[in-house]
Amino acid sequence: MQHRLWRSAILLLVWVTATSCSASYPTAPTAAPVRLLLLSTSSLNDFSFNRSFTVKVYLIDSDGVYTDVTNAAEWQVSNSLLRVTRIQPSGSFTGGFSVSAANGFNESGVSTVTAVYQGRTDSITVTVYPSSRSAPRLEVLFSGSQQLTPGAQTLGVSARYWSTPGSRTDVPASYSTSDPGVATIDGARITPRSPGKFTLIASYEGVSEHVLMFVNPSEKLIKP
Amino acid sequence: MVTALICLLFAPASSAQTADREIVRLAANLYQVRDGAQHTVFIVTADGIILADPLGTSTAGWLQAEFEKRFPDKLVRLVVVSTDLYTRIEGASLFNDTAVVVGQSKIGEAVRRAWQDLPGSLIPFDRNASHTLEPVELTSHPGAAALMARDRDGDGVLRPSEVNSSVTIVEREFERSDRLNANVTVLAPAAGAPQLSVVWFAEERIAFAAAIPGLLARPVRLNQPNATHAVAWARAVAALDFDVLITGDGQRVSHADIEALRKYLDALFADVAAGYEAGKSVDQLQRSVTLDAFAAAPFYPSRRAHIAELFDGVRIVTADLYGFASGRYVLPDSAYSAGYSLSRRPVVPVGTVGLRVSGRMLGLAGEFASGPQEMIARSSAYYDERIAVRDSRVSGLIRIGGVSTALVAGLSSTTTDARGEYIARATTGALGGRHPIASRRRGYGVTVGGEATVRISTNAAFLMTLRVTGAVSPARGVAPVRNLDVQVGAGLSIRTHRRFRTPN
User: Fold this and answer.
1) What is the pLDDT of residue B452?
2) Searching chain A, which residue's CA lies closest to the CA of residue B371?
3) Chains A, B: CB contacts under 8 A, how many?
4) Are the C-beta atoms of residues B49 and B68 closer than 8 Å to each other?
């Protein structure tokens, strides 16, 4: 009887020791399915002033994870107003594509830039203004870099009102965003929420300005 | 010739004592020897003579002469030393030539102790109690000249090492019974008490014991040398099949008397041991242990003294295997949850197994605790984490307390193993997406607590436990840090070993 008791106790101890020291997670991580393609760029509000801008395209999965496929994507422009040029890698820069006016800024109009990757597409519509724009109009100014990423600092905005092409005044405009899921605005500060496109709308005395903006994915792990 | 010389040297001064010797036949081949108040026995077998305690050298010399006269074709082949009294074994030196002298292991120590003093027959001459003999002290001794011849270093002083006979004893660790031949068995009823050995002559149904542990005194004194030895002795001897037990001082005790005493001591010891284990005092036991069934026995009037003697002599060692299920509450790790929405159960189940070795009030315990893994999830806008965490804890605890309640304290080592995955959102590159988590860290802490026990049978008890563990050096892995946890549980304790030991 005592031997059986001891044997049972030892077996119990061995079993407990063997099975209880490690934890086991029920599933191994699996890749999340692709959700969409996102074409992103820096802000376009100053494009009319004869500058080019870079474009990137990301593949987004259902976990909200972004893979940069800029160099692998195919780029298309809807008309001859714009052109897309490859930028060669240099130093830490991995290369990419630049969008610029095909004919300088002598010609105004609307053009669409499209990225195609693995059968998915995303586009942005670009308006090319002449070097001298009409008035009255609003100009939106930013307090810092427009390279917005989730979890980063907020960005202050302000507005300048052009009553005539030669007369301008700083004014307290009102602001709103087209997609609060991507960015929210509180007074005159933009808070990036998640990567994506949104339109910042500034309004003052019946005059409004629409600025296409982007929140780009972070290159760092975002933890509280 | 040598024998004669030794007999002459150590012969008592009084010649009257020399005449006070006799050999009495007890059975066909079994004889009782008396020299004054000292008694012993021998048996004549086909292989030779087996002699119990040979007594002093004088008696042994006389015996040797008697053997030559009565049994001229028999030699003494075995001398059984059943006591540590040198006065009863010094005569063995006379039989070293033909016999093997056997005794329990501690007999050797007794002999060595005796060598540090004079033989009993010479002590009366040591008038200045110097433990040596000067010539002036030996003037009245008839063998003074021969004695002084043993002054090997020639300093004019006889030291114990110069006068004591050399006895070669084969020390043997007697088992409960050690059969010397088909008829003669030696028992060591109480381990560690060589003075309580018994020689049992099965065919003659007679036993011999040089000393009995105070059982024959009136009132019976159990604490000579030790109360628990007395109980062990009574149990072992009562189990022998004999009619009469002869003692070293010549008393004859019937088996019925020993058996009655054994029953009384067993009952007394059981009650005292249980009370001792339960933490009761001597006074409490003297009031509660009445043993009315033995009220008419001659030793009953000394019951209160016996309880005190047994109480003083008893030491308990128990070993218990125990297990309990408990709920463990872990103090939240605020740093782990800051900025996240956290999902975890406040209390997780834990199973603990342990082995405890205890004395009456002090014990040591080793515990191993583990249980089902705990699922912990935390999430924020851009980060989700879900891990399975299992803690395994080994503790070494000191237990202070009695049978029913005790406090425990000690050191513990906790291994925290975490497995799982995290999802990093809104992030590019290799940092984003789903990633496995694996972390195994060990931390150290201090455990304190208590336990209450309710005995449900002789060997089983219901156990309620409390353990509080504070981390001194917590495990810092991917899991929440366990700075403090509280564990409350209940279970069973199985006694695997319970032994009452003598204090020496």
Assistant:
1) 96
2) A20
3) 139
4) no
